[in-house]
Design brief:
- The protein is mainly α.
- It folds into 2 domains: 190 residues, Growth Hormone, Chain: A; 184 residues, Growth Hormone, Chain: A (Up-down Bundle).
- Helix content is 84%, strand content 0%.
- The longest helix is centred in the middle third of the chain and has 40 residues.
- The chain is globular.
- About 3% of the residues have low confidence.
Length: 401
Amino acid sequence: MRFLKSDSRLIGVLLVLAITQLIAWGTIGLPAVVGRDLAADLGMSLPAVFAGSSVLYVTMGLCAPWLAKAFARHGARKVMMVGTVVSAPGYVVLFFAREPMLYFAGWIFLGMGGSATLSTGAYIMLNEVAGRGAKNAIGGLMLVTGLSSSIFWPTTSFLSDLFGWRGTCLVFAVMLLGINLPLYAFVAPRRKIVTDEHAEAVKAVRPPAIPRSTFGLVASVITMNAFVNFGIGAILIELLRAEGLAPAQALAFGSMLGVIQVSARGLDFLGGGRWDGITTGLVAGTALPIAMVLLMLSEGATWAVATFILLYGAGSGAMGVARATIPLVFYDQAEFAKAMSMIALPLNLASAISPPLLAGLLTQFGSRGALGLTLVISCATVLILILLGRRRPRLAAAAAT
């Protein structure tokens, strides 16, 4: 736990972000719990209701590049405060929705606010406090946020039973303004200049410029892995059923995935700063194509499905940490904020596109269609990670050894 000892402020910011990210991610999972109620009340099909999440991700992606300068100029704290104020009306709009247009308008508000508050802003805030040492702090935060559905799905169900889905939306708006906003305003740290191990201010000598081609590789590897992880996660139950598993078996295996993903993140977290995001990505990324080939060749054997869940869960869980921390290898402070904001555009678009695309391949060509595409993308991801490993800046390369 060296990273906690190095800066006591990191403990405070992690507590703030653990609470606010749990609430922010947990509340947007509303359709997963009350989707059928939403569909019946609004006269929409269930797929149309879940399309609200796609609207969220597309909006987040489109807004993210515009926030790059705001993060660099004003710091994550102020931007996340504004994002929270923008998000809360989204739930109020959902409360008043009586038709699809207003329903999707609510998700647009949530996407605009989410581009400032969901994950990207949190990682930038941790980078402001710890610089390149933020990797393990980000891993620790992801351990908590990985539990958002486990905590908020039953919470949403309970609130819906008490107040209905519309009342639940108002409760969510109050939580954002009554909990998240004060935590950002009064508890979250203000930006400071990161210091090195000798407590000296980092010299104002600009590091060598990172080539644009390197940024392209970083953005590509993060986007491609997000496409695979978000897509497979969305269709996993149907994918396993297409492999011949009974519905109850598919659900049982699918439910194991989240636990394995969080466990893999925990192992990376316990590793401290002994390896960087590229190393994590190479190890984790290699597990994904192995898992997919095994499932494609197994013809639905129970042992193979269990091995697939173990390998894919561990690989995708650790790759979640890698997606957030690979930019730390190349960028620091303001450059990191700019890079993360720019990467958020393709990342969120891929997150929105992959579930319906893979679902379509699964429907038209069976499990081999969906697995074939994700296998190709996963192999390409590993190759790009190898290239990035060769482009490590000297400082990052020394830290990774």
